Structure of Pantothenate synthetase:
Amino acid sequence: MHLIEDKRHLQAVLAAERQKNHSIGLVPTMGALHYGHLSLVKRALSENGVVVVSIFVNPTQFDNQNDLKNYPSNLERDLDLLNALSEDILVFAPSKTEIYPGEIAPQKFKFGGLEKTMEGQYRNGHFDGVATIVELLLKTVGPDKAYFGEKDFQQLQIVRKLVRSKQIPVEIIGCPIQREANGLAMSSRNERLPKEVRQRAGFIFETLKTAKRQFGMKSADYLRKWVKDQFKANNDFDLEYFEITDEEKLAPIQRKRKNKKYRAFIAVYAKGVRLIDNIALN
Ligand code: PAF
């Protein structure tokens, strides 16, 4: 594992790799790595000559300063985990000023409505911050492939739209959600959950699975209310949203139609920790 902190140094190393005809895979992360991230890195290693893992807690994608302050971070542990996968990984861990030499502010983007629902609705400016850093990373690294987890499915669709609209020549690869033994979607934030709540948080995925079983037989509105009621009756979690949308436009739906793909999305708070998850419905 090679730790690189500045863009120019990274670009010089990557130029030498390109000379050797090595393809480049990029896995963008905010650190506090868990098995979900490592599964992306493993896939990137299997498909590319060289892999860059970026570790940067991007301030402009946090609408809540407390969430940013409490975001877990442990660079040494992250580096050990990556080194155990491969000693050749290039870890790009820039400082804030390397990424934002001037004002720490996002650019403004429009994603044709994809950014308006769910995470976009509840986390003001979140996707402007995500798109700002992802565009910068893609342009700095110039990867052939970049890997994103489906846990952040809305982010994945927005990144796909970003590269299409900016004509960035990269293949965006969506990778399946990794789950803890009880079904809780793996997330860096899980570390902040009290142990007993983390154990009971399998409830979130159980609820999504039961909603999935009912999808098609019941209307989307029925399921929205049903999920709301499940969370009302559970003292561990506060539901922020549950939504059923088509996969392409992420627009809330009323009824299932033939030949379209749908997903259910959820965001909940557990003891002040925000958790998200989603499930493909067909
Ligand atoms: O998914 C994440 O961890 C972040 O949103 C990303 C893509 C690394 C951008 O900061």
User: Anything to note?
Assistant: The first strand starts at residue 2 and ends at 4.
